[in-house]
Amino acid sequence: MPIGQKFRGLILRLFGGLSRLSVDKARTFGLExxxxxxxxxxxxxxxxxxxxxxxxACPRPIRFIVNESIYRVEWLNPFFRSRGAIPMPSVRAEEAxxxxxxxxxxxxxxxxLAEAELxxxxxxxxxxxxxxxxxxLSEEPVVPVWLDRLSMSSFPxxxxxxxxxxxxxxxxxxxxxxxxxxxxxxxxxxLARERLLELGELCFENxxxxxxxxxxxxxxxxxxxxxREAIIDxxxxxxxxxxxxxxxxxxxxxxxxxxxxxxxxxxxPPGIGSxxxxxxITLAAKTPVNLNFTVGRAALQSAIQQGExxxxxxxxxxxxxxxxxxxxxxxxRLENVVSELKAKIGL
Length: 347
Fold this sequence. Notes:
By secondary structure, this protein is an alpha/beta fold. It has helices at residues 3-24, 50-57, 68-71, 77-82, 94-105, 129-138, 189-205, 214-224, 242-256, 272-283, 297-307, 316-320, 337-345; strands at residues 27-29, 39-43, 62-67, 86-88, 109-113, 142-148, 175-178, 229-232, 239-241, 263-266, 287-290, 311-313, 332-333. The chain has two domains: 3-205, no CATH class; 214-345, 3-Layer(aba) Sandwich (Rossmann fold). 41% of the residues lie in helices and 15% in strands. Helix 12 (316-320) links the parallel strand 12 and strand 13. The radius of gyration is 27 Å and the shape is elongated.
């Protein structure tokens, strides 16, 4: 076997193994939504190893529609050919789209992997008009699928100089969520985008760690980096280390716990004081509500009433400069917070 073929085979096995590591610890949702017949699979984006991961997560074989420039990449071509991928030229792509629609009508699962969709993870969803055209030609349903927390960069293209990026394949669990099929009559780009965002919300809600209390995570993080600078104030360039931030926040949280109510307002400009206040409220198992004291009295009163806020953390200069805030009537100010912060961090 020529050396080039051996190298391409090694690369494909490596990528398959890395994808398998991700899929083995992935959470898959909505497999019951996959139709028995043919359908068009509509992903939020496909970048890097996402195509391999999607195939490993899907129980049905997937025939990809691939931009011709990507299909011709020497070391990727064996994978695409093994999956029976359909190359799509940049011009006069009607033949490739018609073939894709025919494959769907014959009961296959087809997924478009066009260059416009090879975007960096986290970028806005880009849906091309070809999706809608294939759906209407095939007269079969479209199944949205969301791939969450896949960390490779996109396939190499003219816009990319590097393929390999620093990645956390081995530590970041991924999720793949299949949505309910959208019929050919109801399908449009707006509805497809809405369904994808709903699947993204589902995946985010099920991310590991979100069931932990934010206060516990704050304590663990600040303890782990107690000698590292945690805050640099951009106004006066004061600095605070993680350990000092944790100590001050714990002291302030004990004062906040004495007061009833689930929410506590923070009326401070951006800086060390507002960070300490937010951390302390979190450690007190309450929700911080940062109020913009420049928006006017009516807006502040509305926010206070809707949030059922009775306690605020502020400083004397802010109070004097904010006559629109109903300090004495509707909002009780924690009297000793100002002196506490002054003593601890020189606010």
